[in-house]
Design a protein that fits this description.
Two copies of one chain form a homodimer.
Chain A (H helix, E strand, L loop, with lengths): L5 H19 L2 E2 H8 L3 H13 L3 E6 L9 E5 L5 E7 L3 E8 L4 E8 L6 H18 L7 E8 L2 E3 L4 E5 L4 E4 L1 H8 L3 E6 H12 L7 E7 L3 E7 L2 E2 L31 H4 L1 H13 L14 H9 L3 H24 L4 E5 L6 H15 L3 H4 L2 E4 L6 H16 L7
Parallel strand pairs in A: 4-7, 7-11, 12-15, 15-16
Antiparallel strand pairs in A: 1-3, 2-3, 4-5, 5-6, 8-9, 9-10, 12-13, 13-14
Helix pairs in contact in A: 1-3, 2-3, 6-13, 8-9, 9-10, 10-11
Chain A binds a DNA duplex (30 and 30 nucleotides) through α1 and α3.
Chain lengths: 400, 400
DNA sequence: CTTTATTTTATCACTTTAGTTAATTTAATT
DNA sequence: AATTAAATTAACTAAAGTGATAAAATAAAG
């Protein structure tokens, strides 16, 4: 536990003020004092420091309520810039954003497979250099690089422990980037970064117990409690892809039977579709190894009833998985992401109906479940949010 | 967020010192200063206050290491007493303990069924009065009453929202007891209180991410993270009894199929045993409606191979449920409690083997799993721990 | 339409709290 | 007697709290 000191007290109060401006800005000094119970002089002097640090600025004057007009304070979103890297199994997506998460610049690289550790790390450096070159006038205001890496990540050590699709182990990503660039570097698992993206930029703003579920080739979840990521004892909290929900189900890549992933992932949907087609149904789809979940979605879009049924059924299974999640973590909000979630139109009604049917209590039944609206760069924005967390934890005082 | 103030800073430091003495006592002022990074004068003055409040006392002098002998400090376990009530579905168990959780006095009441709300609340008051009368010389040093109530509990409001076995709703337990006794009153769900008991008095001491799983008539779990209970958004975090693990399993009382509870609870074990016996097996057990899980345990104890097989199988299913728990919450430790856990001798090897087989990573595979050693009054001790939490949060300054 | 009173925002000067530094006392060991 | 460790005392300082004051607006009165 951190001891109490004058510095700690000041830092805490500064953080409270900064967070207040972030969440409720534009806001006046007087209003901050009222809502935080800090005294006006304290607010004044700490705001002065925040303005000196450039992270906060005075904006327009507000409306008077029968006295002197308040000077409104806002975060200076243009003060600093951040780089976010979504390091996926097949491609790398890089964004440069301001503090509001507005994407200023974007780059994408396809990964040559197979790839060596050196090649992969070089690609990260190359991409970062490239986006900095494209935005050279802002390079001096860049404060950090965030990396959302697929696979198992040790965020504290800054390492990618295991990237299954690339078959790479123990890559010192943070160290490598920190050696090449004079910026703060932070790395995290992609599913968890996504949860952070939702709390900073998505529909999870203000939610204090959010789960972001990613359903694609695999299934994973990130858990954010009170704005902080919950990682568990050994970085595997939220590994719901391998939650057993069917004792006698299909065999999973992990060796067990009936993992959630064997039922609701993209490949699982394709496989189930193929299987059912063998039994003979009326559909526009063509059976075969190349059939994907996206094909099923497209067929549903063009009115194929069988495809719609498949997706509704998938929604039911997702709902069962989410109900298990609700009964253990009991989040206030669940946000769905990933390739499969793009078929949300067909999945969501079934998901919600299933949770409503199966959850134990009234409030559990009405747990907010929605589709992410962050778009294609969601994970890269999560990487950016890693830097924001650091910036705000340090009250805007970034020093590499 | 709580603002930083002189009071808050002092309170935090006092709490750090008190916790240090609790966990590492007997310990000297100098040692506390070293380990907490607080300065010796700060430690000295705050310890003085703690001694004035009677919660800390000086004990024997320690060994000198080449200078003045250190004065060792310890929690004064005899300074205050607490009452803990385990309000179960059929009986009430009341204990009076000192701050170390040593049981000084104990009472038990069988509940007359059916029972009305007034009768139930009266029973709680009657029991508390009785144990106070039996310990009249200590009544003045009692600081609080903790209640571990079965069913759904709103700890903040101090109410039992729903007690399924008694069919009682919205009982204002905290209010009722607070009106009758001039003590602090705290109430919590029994499974969660149990988790607290393990962190304060059991094998979970010092564990910062503990799950206490109760397997009896029903199945539930309490989650304690960094010494605090994790309740979730609507008080149902840890409701693992209704986690679906078999899509096509038996129908549960909740209406769904394949809830963990339909496989590993006491009644479920009995039912499965009956079912298998119909298929014809060699066993000393007699089929029938009156067969209980305890009978199976007794048969296993007297060498019945069939009974042992049933319990091993049950252990496998418990292991699957715990693996799901590990993949979502990723605790550092799981402690098993409740009637079924009494057959732990036969269950535990299978549980551990299953987790080892199914968990994803090496550290997840080796999650510590053990049987509770708290004995019969475990839940009542959890109720007592509720008061300890309050006492230590307030640095020993209890005021009703 | 000007003047005055009132209200709200923000700051300044002074006080108080409690941690920090450095020196001192106490009491042991070598 | 010298040294070392524990605990306390006294002076210092950081940062919040209190109360007064300045600034700038609106509302009311003449």
């Amino acid at each position: 536990m951190q001891r109490g000191s004058f510095q700690a007290m000041k830092s805490l109060n500064k953080s409270i003020i900064l967070t207040k401006i972030l969440n409720d800005g534009p806001i006046s000094r007087a209003q901050i004092a009222k809502e935080t119970k800090l005294t006006p002089p304290t607010v004044g002097s700490l705001v002065k420091e925040l303005i000196d640090q450039k992270i906060v600025k005075e904006s327009t004057q507000g409306m008077s309520k029968g006295g002197r007009k308040p000077t409104m304070l806002v975060i200076d979103h243009q003060a600093y810039y951040m780089i976010g890297i979504d390091a996926g199994p097949t491609k790398i997506d890089i964004v440069l954003t301001n503090l509001a998460g507005d994407i200023i610049s974007n780059l994408q690289y396809q990964l040559p497979l197979p790839i060596t550790e050196a090649q992969f790390l070089d690609k990260l450096i190359e991409g970062t250099e490239e986006i900095l070159k494209l935005n050279s006038e802002r390079a001096n205001d860049v404060i950090g690089i965030g990396v959302a890496m697929h696979g198992v990540v040790d965020a504290e050590a800054g390492e990618s422990l295991y990237a299954p699709n690339l078959d790479l182990h123990n890559m010192p990503i943070k160290q490598t980037l920190a050696n090449h660039f004079a910026y703060l570097v932070s790395i995290e698992n992609d599913a968890r970064a996504l949860a952070l993206a939702e709390t900073w930029f998505g529909q999870g703003k203000g939610s204090d117990r959010l789960v972001a579920v990613n359903i694609g080739t695999g299934v994973g979840a990130g858990v954010a409690i009170d704005g902080e990521l919950y990682r568990g004892e050994s970085h595997i909290a939220g590994e719901i892809g391998h939650m057993t929900i069917d004792l006698n189900g299909e065999v999973c890549s992990c060796g067990n039977r009936g993992c959630l992933q064997t039922i609701i992932s993209g490949p699982a949907i394709a496989e189930r579709t193929n299987k059912l087609m063998k039994e003979g149904v009326t559909t526009s789809l063509t059976e075969g190894d190349h059939l994907t979940a996206y094909d099923v979605y497209k067929a549903a879009e063009s009115g194929d009833q069988f495809a719609k049924m498949i997706l509704t059924e998938t929604g039911k299974y997702i709902g069962i998985g989410l109900t298990n999640l609700i009964h253990t973590l009991n989040p206030s909000q669940i946000i769905l992401n990933g390739g499969v979630a793009k078929a949300g139109k067909y999945l969501l009604p079934a998901i919600k109906a299933t949770v409503k049917e199966r959850a134990l209590t009234a409030s559990a039944k009405s747990t907010a479940i929605c589709l992410s609206d962050l778009g294609d760069h969601a994970t890269a924005l999560g990487a950016v949010a890693l830097i924001l967390v650091e910036l705000f934890a340090k009250n805007g005082e970034i020093s590499i």
